[in-house]
Amino acid sequence: MTEKRIGVVYLTDGKRDDLTYASAVALGLNHARGIDIHIVQSGFSSAPPPTVLRILQAKGHRLATHSLPTVDRGLPGHGHITSTAYEKTAAIAAVSGDHDVVCYLDNDTLAVRPLDLAAAAPTTRPLAAVPDLSICTGLDNRAFFENCDKHGLERRYFNSGFMAIDVSRWIGSGIPERFSSALKSHAYFCPYWDGSCTHIDQCAFNIAAQGAWETLPVEFNVQKSAFQTSYWDRALIRHYTGPEKFLPAVAHRIDSQERSVLGRISCNCGELGLNIPPAYLGLTYKVNRLRRRAYRIRISRLIGQLPGPSV
Fold this sequence. Notes:
By secondary structure, the chain is of the alpha/beta class. 33% of the residues lie in helices and 16% in strands.
């Protein structure tokens, strides 16, 4: 029997599709084996830019768009995180019938080195993901471990911006159903923060997937809390959590790796209108790195104390 291709799913409300398509192209440029990339559009339908489709097909990948109806759950977004985030399980379900393994990616992720998503596939559980580097280290939530113990939760917490899913186990796990239920209760009380919380979908995923996820190597989802650390330097996928994304590219936030990837995207997909700061401004990145030295040392030490991958 022929092995099915890995499916990759992005969920978008159309507001930052410069990020969506740049992220998809970066992944396609860095993934040697053919993958199927699905752009799930919440509440709208739009064709992808022709040059994006062309470059991905030239690399042996397939690109498809899907439209989801808008669902009003009566739950708000928060800041740069819109209420579309509540539809992640629906986006995954929309493409799961065609794949054994589906990888969900937020559109503010950027593949910067060659990778194979097959290496991220769960081995025994429905889900594999990377710990949230600022939460489960206690950096953003100093009471995280105490709150987990208080509310009977395991002392692990993943970032939902990259999730590798074994489809058959996922469907039978009850995670999607528990996620929907947890969204409602989380709107009033978050056990991880022992009160109100701004992580509108991520906590609900963690509650729903208690004991049912495997820990991936950090390199598959190096979040921006590790910006300019050695973890950031050796990332396979960088994740621009927070309001500042990889686009527009800014001199004090872009290094040579990122400049190379965005340069290739710009050359192949002019329609995306990427503007990349000239290389001679690279000094500002180095100055920023030096300025942030104390923070980099601290977060690197905390990340180094996390348990290793389970896959």
